[in-house]
Amino acid sequence: MDNKTIYALSTVFGKSGIATVRISGKNALEVLKKLSDIDTKNVIPRHAYFSKLHGVDNIPLDHAVVIYFQAPYSFTGEDIVEISCHGSKAVISSILSNLSQIKDFRLAEAGEFSKRAFYNNKIDLTEAEGLADLIDAETSEQQKYALRQMNGELKDLYDGWRTELVNVLSHIEAYIDFPDEELPQNIVLNLENTVFKVKESIKTHLSQSNYGERLKDGFRVVIIGEPNSGKSSLLNTLANREAVIVSDIAGTTRDAIDIHMDINGYPVVFTDTAGLRNTTETIEKKGIEIAYEKAKDADLILAMVDGKNPNFDQFNDIASTCSKKIIYVINKSDLLNEKQCSEYKKSGFIVISAKHKNGIENLISAINERISSEFTQNSSALITRQRYREVLNDVFKDLDQFNLNKSIELAAEDIRLAARNIGKITGHIEIDEILDKIFGSFCIGK
């Protein structure tokens, strides 16, 4: 990362009422000198100035609102100037073109403002990734959890574990230079207890069954059943459009088809699959194999049957391993009498008519209840990146190997590796603080 002042359009390029251009770096105030009439000597931080903008050649560009954020009290930790101008392509292009003509200014690289915020200790990596998730959020639940991460929820959790391990390591390191002295038993028990608690906390954190990743990518709900049970009709009804072909000809659906939806704030991916039946047709047979694979990997399974000819035997193999994530759906309620529908409902089935859109709200409520209940049970900080999970698995292995009955140097290395690995998640890998812990507890004069 160089020391040049960077600039970029922070809003979408195109026709809009307002666009914002952000400038960050030690020479950010040069913008006010070159492109406005604002007095840089008397400019007040965080004060909005309405000003005419002109080019470096004094040609008028626009009227804009300009705000100066003084270092280190800014997003990047550097001086920042934000220009809120009119959002026409011509205005935006002319401002960016003039910024490129200022000495030591350059166009920012992708994510460089956040990268500078990280290097200036304004945010850690988890907060930066929370910000990215917030920008990409499409549902209210994605927004909520992205904000929690951006506000430091994961950072505080991981830094807390790392602080505990650094404290353990500082005690162990203090005794490495004195091999003839044994660690007092009370200290041994305290250190082992601390490591055990951290390890158990990480174990609990890892047991969330990918809820955080699912919140980002969508919960997988797979629809399975015999041909002509109404799977494709249900998908079209949920999508409120003709997303897949509906036909009375068995075997029309050959491959898995995905539809993305927002169910009460949760991103859900519904998958239509090939009808389950015995067949010798090669392509259809492959589609049925894919259907079983999708069902096994799903978060929820909608096992659908034709209410007139219900066949639940087709789900025996799946139910033997995935019974807890199956919702049984009786379709074609429009062909059933009231007594039949009532009996099915009493047995715990969701009764619908995909063709006439009856009972769909009940089905969506059942899906939402299953998903939201899982989040209620796992309402703590969520693992939102696969890299977090991989690193934490390594941390758990390091701590699992820790034992003060073996060489103290090896025990210290186990803790050192664990603390360093946690630092890979947050971006903080500073072994010097171990020395601070050791000597910080010494008496003055020692």
The general outline is flat
What is the alpha-carbon Rg in Å? 30 Å
Tell me the fraction of residues in β-strands, as a range: 15-25%
Helix proportion? 40-55%
Overall average pLDDT: 86
- Give me the secondary-structure category: alpha/beta
Number of helices: 16
Kindly, what is the distance between the CA atoms of the first and last residues, rounded to a whole number of angstroms?
A: 41 Å
CATH fold naming of the largest domain = Rossmann fold
When the domains are counted, the total is: 3
The side-by-side strand order for the widest beta sheet comes to 3-4-5-2-1-6
**Biggest sheet record:** 6 strands, mixed
Level-2 CATH architecture of the largest domain = 3-Layer(aba) Sandwich
Give, in order, the helices and strands: EEHEEEHEHHHHHHEHEEHEHEHEHHHH
Q: How many DSSP-defined strands?
A: 12
CATH class of the largest domain: Alpha Beta
Would you spell out the secondary-structure blueprint of this structure?
Elements: E1 5-9, E2 16-24, H1 30-35, E3 48-54, E4 60-69, E5 80-87, H2 89-99, E6 105-107, H3 112-119, H4 125-136, H5 140-150, H6 153-176, H7 185-206, H8 211-217, E7 219-225, H9 231-239, E8 257-263, E9 266-272, H10 282-297, E10 300-306, H11 316-322, E11 326-331, H12 338-346, E12 350-351, H13 360-377, H14 386-401, H15 408-426, H16 432-440
Parallel strand pairs: 1-6, 7-9, 7-10, 10-11, 11-12
Antiparallel strand pairs: 1-2, 2-5, 3-4, 4-5, 8-9
Helix pairs in contact: 4-5, 6-7, 6-15, 6-16, 7-14, 14-15
